[in-house]
Fold:
Amino acid sequence: MLRHLRPAVALTVFFTLLTGLAYPLVMTGAAQAMFPTAANGSLIDRDGTIIGSELIAQPFAGEAWLHPRPSASGWNAAGTGASNLGPTSAALIATVAERRTAWEAANGTAAPIDAITASGSGLDPHISPETALAQAGRIAAVRGAEAGAVRGVIAAGIEGPFLGLYGEPRVNVLLTNIALDAAFPFPPAEGEGQATE
Amino acid sequence: MSLIAYSLYFAALVSLAWLLAIWMTRVFSGALPAALLRTEATLLRLCGAAPDRGIGWGAYALAVLVFNATCFVVLYVLLRAQGTLPLNPDGIGGMAPDLAFNTAVSFVTNTNWQAYSGEAQLSYLSQMAGLTMQNFVSAGTGMAVAVAVVRGFVAPREATLGNFWVDLTRSVLWILLPLSVVLALFLAWQGVPQTLQGAVMATGLEGQDQIIARGPAAAQIAIKQLGTNGGGFFGVNSAHPFENPTIASNMAQSLSILLIPVAFCFLFGRMAGDRRQGWAIFAAMAVMFVAGLAVVHVYEIAGNPALGVGANMEGKEQRFGAMLSALWAASTTAASNGSVNAMHDSFMPLSGLVMLVFMQIGEVIFGGVGAGLYGMLLYVVLAVFLAGLMVGRTPEYLGRKIEGREVTLAVLAFLSMPLGILVGGALAATVPQALAAVQEPGPHGMSEILYAYSSATGNNGSAFGGYGAALTWHTTALGIIMLLGRYAIIIPMLAIAGSMIRKPQAPVTSGTFPTHGPLFVTLLILTVLILGALTFFPVLALGPIAEETARLAGQSF
Structure:
């Protein structure tokens, strides 16, 4: 017992210094030097203001914006969470049905499944291309733009599966909203388009 | 299309593991470059570890226990005191005693069950010097024990099981650390944060504020996958876009989860001097894995008609979809990893059944690093014993007789699974202050209890997240059960190894039952399934099977 205590304590100290401090600190230095943007959270700076992270969903609610997937934790990026409701949960089935009704009223099309189910992280930055394109009509109307032009901006942001085999096609909501805002400023300038608000 | 994707994935996994096994065999036999040998010898001598002396099984087990106990004390104190220690930019306070006990046990036993949420309850110092360090040494402990157990089966009589301090140091320095450096840099490139700066305040396009937590995540996530630890930096683990930002990062992590456990199969064959023995164990594991994965894949792609048309996307991320979430769910429960890239609580009932079975049979389908192999050797002892009974000969494995002592010890080790899952689960289902943790009425609630206690006993660490595991009853009970699931298998397995190594190695004759062919693989699979099924089928019928039946009848709860 005592014979083992000295190596146990000594190696605990050694491994704490090596794998608990040196390893993460060296990795921090290397990552900051090699990939500074990624290593700091892929933050997007617009005119000196951080408007978010390209990887983290924001709660877009206005009609002029592409909306993200539902979040069970209110898009809280400092305390994440999912619904964790099971497949036979009456509460889950009712919530999804409500979301479907709301979605179809807002967009006038059938709701794709990713648009009405909450993501695992509550911060899913992506939606499916179907969910994105289905919102084009609403966005175009509010921004006073051609629906086809809005669809074009959205389609330009579609990312395919990795190596053509892994993962799903997707659209990054925040990046696409930035692109939409650049192409069709909101609120629209005087005399332009058919804005309804 | 998905068949091609899965085939390429498995081809990559097996090739990488096969190469790694060559390196690992050299590391554990000490066939290392002289500079590395000098480094470790100096280190161990300074630590008072007498590196050149092998030890008996009892001393090996005692060294494991003393080292892990030391780690537990240090981690517990660190978690309690983190509020007053440096590297805490978000000003997080000390952990409550029961939660600190649960967390310290969880990381020392390589379980990484998380009753806390990382971004809200841990300082950067705790994440790094506490959890990241434990990720390395708890994985190293499992690898060292596995190598010692293998030596018991294959080394000559005059040899020893080896020296725990040497095996531990070699696992960390020459296997886990180099792999982690490569993976951490890859993950940081893909977008996993690696920064000491605190949370950042963003002002969104609609003018709303958003606090974005970040931290030194990439380094920890690399070892959490490679060491089959699984404890996330953030609460939602590898579903979080900061833990797993891209499909490439997902594939790299998916491979890392199974890499070392698969390599251990091939390491076993190499150490035994008969690579077919390693392939046989690999084949038994692979058959069960693919069968389980197929079930999860089919059910998640088919989706939940009660929610709408399409895959089951509740609790899943769009970039991964149903397929990569199914692959991860099967891998993480098979390999005792426990990280998640989708929320298991929201998977279809029979997907949940597969995950429960993978954990309940003792994490032996690849399993934890090292732990999967010595867990499977437990079943090998029982399978060879059953074969011996059937043909009426004294059972032998790798030329050594399996006798009463080994079988008794193997059964004793096996009993820790039903003890933790059924007794622990039964208490959790009856004691009122424990029952409050159940989120959902009906059979899914039963699955939640079962999942928590299966995960803790199997040292897996994943959860049905709706289950309120932070209640004091569960932090305490699950903590005790994690200790049971770890050491009540390690100690008997080392004892079996200590007893096996002293037996003479008989030459192979025409009467020897070959343990490398399809017959043995089938027998091994049946042993695992029959023992597991007989023990857990009744309670599984009350959980996922009842839920599936109710679902098909259109019932909800």
Remarks:
- The mean pLDDT of chain B is 95.
